[in-house]
Structure prediction request, 560 residues.
Amino acid sequence: MKQLIECVPNFSEGRDLGIIKQITDQIETVEGVKLLDVDPGKATNRTVVTFVGEPDAVVEAGYRAIKKAAELIDMSKHSGEHPRMGATDVCPFIPISNITMEETVVYARKLAERVGKDIGISVFLYESAATDPRWKNLANIRAGEYEKMESKLLKDDFNPDFGPSVLNVSAGVTAIGARDFLIAYNVNLNTTSTRRANSVAFDVREAGRSKREGDPITGKIIRDENGDAVRVPGACKSVKGIGWFIEEYGIAQVSMNLTDIKETPFHIAFEECCKSANKRGLRVTGSELVGLMPLNVILDAGKYFLKKQNRSTGISEDQIIKIAVKTMGLDELTPFDPQKKIIEYLLAADQNTPLLDMTLPGFANETASESPAPGGGSISAYVGSLGISLGTMVANLSSHKRGWDNRWEEFSDYADQGQVIKDKLLAMVDEDTNAFNEIMNAFRLPKGNENEKTARKNAIQNATKYAVEVPLKVMETALESMSIIQKMAEIGNPNSVTDAGVGALCARTAVYGAFLNVKINLGGLEDLDYVEAAKNKAQDLLNKANDTEIEIMKIVEGKI
Prediction:
């Protein structure tokens, strides 16, 4: 499994698209890196770039981008709404897959050292990479912004981790670090008042506001015995926020960084902004995602709002996402395209799924052609996905049945399980074809000398085992779906019992069809122990599917 790191550098240029393009072009010159998103902001004069790749490739891409930004951006002439201190203001690394935070920190420091030494920029390590406890909080480094950096660098207690202790006047100062996934998120208000937007931000952010005597806005600040302001914490932990006016849109926003989305999901931050705004006579009109988000974040949001409506959450991903987008007004200022805003969807764009990308007639026509793939294995997986889709449909219809309002959550849980199984089976439609292609590729290997013959033989055996494992997985998954289908036949909406029956027939067909694929592929294997184990497993799965089908059809026939 590949180790993957996400990198989200923020460059202090959001208006000149030519400069932005030159910087992102440098990222795309590095093999093993995928540029996911480029999000420029005119008012902030800042561009958030997101790319992902294997660690060493990410370090190289980050270095090239920072170097190019230092060449093109002159911080002595920069202005914008967002706090900033350098041409590359921040460059965080985020562990995404098969890599720990500790390992990610090593790569962040590797980039920081190179930037400081080779480009001559003062670099501070922040968040999880920080060598000084003060630098864990980026705000402590960036205080005073670019304009104060020259004098701050002369102080004994403001020493960069790498690079010079004097200001690079053109490139400024850069913070490089490692952190958990952060969501940059703005909530739109029906006001132009920055002060009112700040009031909402102070209600929501973890740091809250200074406690005051009498009037909470104009009263005298209350201080502790050390002279520090006593603070009234806000509603949301791990949330940083300020209010600002965005001239481009003519509205004020609450601009937030959600630094721990497990502690405060972004839909909860949205809800708290709504509560605060309403209390102050304001209204939230929508919101704006800056950069990208993981799929589970927006799915959790959509499910949260569905549950508030007592509606089933066991619907398709695109429908759940649509609920989240519309409820939170994520498309108020600019269109919200999930394919461009969700990390998993951007990465999936490179995956080879030719069958799933087809129309229904196209899939049928391809199956009916002279090509050996898609074959029975892919069809078995697809039939299985149709079977559980019917079972899921019955669950969703039951959750909305008149008079069953108190049971919506029960059926929603079944629908959620059905959606997971459906997606697994759909993925196997193309995986079965991939397994077939692996066998064909193995047979095409050269067989001249003894080494080549041995390598070819081993490749064929391994590819054949893969071609056994895929239909075995289809059998297991389709059989799993039958328990949900049976439950829907027993307790679901009686008007849909025949749909459950058809779903059971499809599921059993998927199991039997995949069983045939297992048997024929086992014939080409020399590992007799493996063959015997796989054959017994497949037969057991088929027997259970046959028995379950009989039970379900008895229930169905009894109700009609």
User: Anything to note?
Assistant: The first strand starts at residue 4 and ends at 7. The domain at 360-559 is CATH 1.20.120.680 (Four Helix Bundle (Hemerythrin (Met), subunit A)). The chain has a mean pLDDT of 94. The chain has three domains: 4-178, 183-348, 360-559.
